[in-house]
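User: Need the bound-state model for NAP:
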Amino acid sequence: MTSHTSRLVVIGGGNMGSALVGGLVQSGWDPSTITVVEIDAAKCAQLEKDLGVRTSNVVVAAEGALIAVKPGDVVGVCEQVAATGTPRVLSIAAGISVATLQQAVGSTVVAVRAMPNTPALVKEGVTAICGSSACTEEDYAWAESLLSAVGLVVRVPELQMDAVTAVAGSGPAYIFLMAEALLAAAIAEGLPHDVADALVRQLFRGSGILLADSSDSPATLREKVTSPNGTTAAGLAVFEESKLREIVHNVVKAAAARSAEMGK
Ligand SMILES: NC(=O)c1ccc[n+]([C@@H]2O[C@H](COP(=O)([O-])OP(=O)(O)OC[C@H]3O[C@@H](n4cnc5c(N)ncnc54)[C@H](OP(=O)(O)O)[C@@H]3O)[C@@H](O)[C@H]2O)c1
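Assistant: Bound-state model below.
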C-alpha cells in the first residue's frame, strides 16, 4: 500500500500491465515511482519482488494512469482515477472508444486510447494510439514514452482502430496458426516432432527479423527466395491457386467487423 504521488499508476497487474511495467523498469524507469494497482494480493507480491514497484489495492493519485484491466472494468476504473486528480489516462482496453474514456474521466483529464499486441510481452509489440481533440502533442508524447518500452508505437485516427485491431491485435494468432499448420505439415512429411518444432520456430524468428530489418518490400523478399520452376515456386503456386490473398483479406475484414461490433 502507498499514499505518495507516483510518476505513474498502472491499474491491472495482469499480462499486459506487468509486461508494460517490466518494459518501463528495464528501459530505466525508477521502479519506486511506479505504483501498480491490483486486486490480487499474490500478483502484488510477485510484482514487488520481481520489479521493485510499489503496489496498492486502491487507485492512487499519479502524474498519469495506465489502465490495463479488462474492457468491462475500464469505465469504473476511469472514474476512480479521475477522482484522484490524476491528469492523464492511457487505456489499452480493446474496443473502449476515446469518447467513452473521455466521458468517464470528465473534462479535466486527458484520455488516450491504445491497442497493443501480445509480442509486447517480449518487448516486440506494436501499439497504435489515438486521442481526443483535447490531446496535445505533450499528451501523445507521454503515451508514446510509456508504450515504446514494449515496442513500436504508431498514431492513427480512431476510425482506423478496428483495422489496426484486425491486423496487429489479432495478427499474432494468424502467424501462430500458420506455424501450427507448417508444424503439422512438416511432421506429415516425415520430420520428427523436435526437429520440425525447431525448424518452424526459427523460421518465424529469422523471417520476421529479415522482414523487419530489410528495406525490401515483403513481395521483393518473397521473390528473392523464389527461383523460376524451383521448390518455392511449386509451393507458392498452391497458395495462389487457393486464393490465399483473398482469404487473408476476408480474415481481416471479419476481425475488423467484430471489433466494430464489440465497440458498440
Ligand atoms: N492480451 C492481449 O493480447 C491484449 C491486446 C490488446 C489489448 N489488451 C487489453 O489489455 C487489457 C488487459 O488484458 P490482459 O490480457 O493483461 O488481462 P489480465 O491478465 O486479465 O489483466 C487484468 C488484471 O487487472 C486486474 N483487475 C481487474 N479489475 C481491477 C480493478 N478494478 N483494480 C485493479 N485491478 C483490477 C485483474 O485481476 P483479476 O484477474 O483478479 O480480475 C487482472 O489481474 C484488456 O482490456 C485487453 O483488452 C490485451
